[in-house]
Design a protein that fits this description.
The complex is a heterodimer.
Chain A: H1 2-13, H2 16-35, H3 39-68, H4 70-77, H5 83-113, H6 117-143, H7 147-175, H8 182-189, H9 193-205, H10 213-222, H11 224-252
Chain B: E1 2-11, E2 14-24, E3 29-33, H1 40-47, E4 55-60, E5 63-64, E6 75-78, H2 90-100, H3 110-114, H4 130-142, E7 148-152, H5 160-175, E8 179-183, H6 187-193, E9 196-201, E10 204-210, H7 211-218, H8 223-233, E11 239-240
Parallel strand pairs in B: 3-8, 3-9, 6-7, 7-8, 10-11
Antiparallel strand pairs in B: 1-2, 1-4, 4-5, 9-10
Helix pairs in contact in B: 7-8
Classes of the chains: A mainly alpha, B alpha/beta.
């Protein structure tokens, strides 16, 4: 298993998309800190970009990579190895490569310019979101053999979590404005890892009220520490549950 | 050695295999023949546990292979289309596969020599042509002295010299008493290699007999002609030998 991860990582870190992703993150981070006088403001802008970009790149790259590696996976499956360790090593090598890109492209500049509490949460969130969307990518990829359908499903998941979800919550809020909705909104936002990530960072920034309804409710309702613990644990669940489903599906799948 | 008992498999509405019962034994070199989509690759994938049969049982040296993986240490598999991670170098592919088999000391590197693969060891996989990748796949399949060799279209895409080297290698391994399963559409290649012929159509086993029997029954010298004459007769009743 370790050797598949090792060689897999060697392969993926030489991938042009990963190199471009690293450079893009690096330029963006340095650019924002250079343009913005206050580092905290730049971090906030970075958060907003990160919440859209990291899920997108993670899910698209992982899905494409899964399909491209399909024939090699078949060859590995003909070796004396259990299916689970093949899948897990692929997951780990992709996640590690994306994390490495993120470390160089974003963690490094953020720590350089704005090493404060909210930055640490931002960086942790970015890392966890990478894992969440690699999990979701694998879920869409193992669900169907057809590359176009798998990609479609991955894009739809990204679109839903990164863009559509807030709109749906807003719609619910307007539609049921006459009812006390705080608890419901807290519960609903747990259904979206991106929202959870946003909340984990902005609770720490104390500008929660300015950053959308769910964040404000979360802070009022749960308080800072509890809110953080809950939001991070929910994101971790968003990594583990889809991955568990992927392993189950892959175990019984015809290849 | 490898026994299939009433193995059936369908993909949705498509019946890929139906009630397939067959026994492959040591020293046999079985040519799996049949039209495209007849179920040849499904048989191979069932034996490798890549595809799980809907019904029936497959045993390897007497033990069922359901949910097993250790038995694959005795199988060398050469896939129809070998695609490898783009940026991995050729030697790394070999190193990885060796690691996965716990770095055995006595690897068979004959094909690596004959195909002169050492020359391209430093090249990344994406720079290799289809034929070169095919050579890598072939060398990998034979490297660990497996008791069973499963070769899916081994000579398709190889140049005549490489194809000849591979055929000679297959014959030598067969004489060592290994079981070899080959699918190929190039029937002339199978003439020298195969000892037995398994003919499959629309997921149904048509016959499984020795090459000699096939040739005498059809009064043909070449396998290609023999199969053609069988196909013409549309002989659909199942005969086991």
């Amino acid at each position: 298993m370790l050797s598949i991860i090792k060689y897999g990582l060697y392969d993926i870190t030489r991938n042009k998309v990963i190199i471009a992703y690293t450079l893009f993150l690096l330029c963006m981070s340095f650019g924002l800190y250079a343009l913005e006088g206050q580092p905290a403001k730049a971090t906030l802008s970075l958060l907003n970009i990160m919440l859209v970009l990291i899920p997108l790149i993670s899910i698209v790259f992982s899905t494409i990579h899964y399909y491209n590696a399909y024939e090699f996976t078949e060859l590995l499956l003909a070796q004396p190895l259990p299916r689970r360790s093949i899948l897990l090593s692929q997951y780990i090598s992709i996640a590690a490569a994306l994390t490495l890109a993120y470390l160089i492209g974003m963690v490094f500049p953020v720590l350089l310019y704005d090493a404060s509490a909210h930055s640490y949460w931002l960086l942790l969130t970015g890392f966890l979101l990478t894992l969440v969307f690699v999990s979701l990518a694998f879920l869409s990829a193992v669900s169907t053999r057809d590359k176009a359908r798998g990609m479609g499903m991955a894009m739809l998941l990204w679109f839903y979590f990164a863009l559509l979800y807030d709109g749906i919550i807003l719609f619910i809020l307007f539609a049921f404005a006459d009812y006390p909705l705080e608890k419901a909104v807290v519960a609903l936002s747990m259904l979206n890892p991106v929202d959870m990530g946003r909340i984990a960072v902005i609770i720490k920034m104390e500008t929660a009220a300015l950053m959308g309804y769910t964040g404000a409710v979360f802070q009022n309702f749960l308080g800072t520490t509890q809110g953080l613990v809950i939001s991070i644990s929910v994101i971790i669940l968003w990594i583990i549950i889809p991955l568990g489903m992927v392993i189950r599906i892959f175990k019984h799948k015809d290849l | 050695m490898i026994h299939l008992q009433k193995v059936s498999k369908s993909y949705g509405k498509v019946q890929a295999l139906l009630d397939c019962t067959v026994a492959f034994e040591q020293g046999q070199s079985v040519a799996l023949i049949g039209p495209n989509g007849s179920g040849k690759t499904t048989i191979i994938k069932c034996v490798l546990n890549m595809v799980k049969p809907d019904q029936g049982q497959i045993t390897f040296f007497g033990a069922s292979i359901a949910n097993q993986w250790q038995y694959r240490a005795h199988i060398g598999y050469m896939p129809q289309t070998g695609r490898y991670p783009d940026n991995m170098r050729v030697e790394q592919v070999f190193a990885l596969l060796k690691k996965l088999r716990n770095d055995p000391a006595d690897t068979d590197e004959e094909l690596i020599e004959q195909f002169e693969l050492k020359k391209i060891f430093g090249k990344p996989m994406y720079t290799l042509s289809g034929g070169m990748r095919q050579k890598v796949s072939a060398a990998l399949a034979f490297m660990f002295n497996p008791a069973v060799l499963i070769l899916d279209e081994p000579t398709a895409g190889l140049d005549p010299l490489a194809s000849e080297y591979l055929k000679q290698k297959i014959i030598r391994e067969k004489e060592k008493g290994k079981l070899i399963l080959i699918t190929s559409h190039i029937l002339s290649d199978l003439d020298d290699i195969a000892t037995d012929v398994l003919y499959i159509m629309e997921g149904r086993l048509q016959f499984f007999k020795t090459l000699e029997a096939v040739k005498t029954e059809t009064a043909e010298v070449r396998l290609a002609n023999a199969i053609a004459s069988i196909m013409k007769k549309q002989n659909t009743h199942v005969i086991y030998h």
